[in-house]
Specification:
The protein is about 0% helix and about 25% strand. By secondary structure, the protein is an all-beta fold. It has a four-stranded antiparallel beta sheet with strand order 3-2-5-6, with no helix packed on it. About 20% of the residues are buried. The mean pLDDT is about 90.
């Protein structure tokens, strides 16, 4: 995963259906995770300001009550401008049990 960083309101997010945009975000996946989960409407979600070069491992923490099987996609999304900086859409045949 590569990302230049710098967007003021970009976060890792996930959704069960639809495409990555402000209407379809079901969960915020704060990175780095520091013990707190957020709602997409929260004003104090830590933004992804750092650069990712593709050389580091990224571990995302799901909120309680959410499983990987419930997600149809994950993305880096800017809430302020409704911009998708990159996403992964899981095919219907995807099995989280193989992770």
């Amino acid at each position: 995963f590569m990302y230049k960083g710098g967007a003021q309101a970009a976060y890792f997010v996930g959704g069960a259906s639809g495409k990555p945009d402000n209407e379809n975000v079901d969960v915020v996946l704060p990175y780095p995770y520091k013990g707190r989960h957020y709602s997409y409407e929260d004003d104090d979600i830590p933004a992804l300001t750092q650069e990712f070069t593709g050389q580091e491992d990224i571990i995302l923490s799901l909120p309680p009550g959410t499983s990987v099987a419930q997600l149809g996609w994950i993305a880096v999304h800017c809430r302020e401008y409704n911009v998708d900086f990159g996403h992964v859409i899981f095919p219907s045949s995807f099995s989280h049990k193989n992770l």
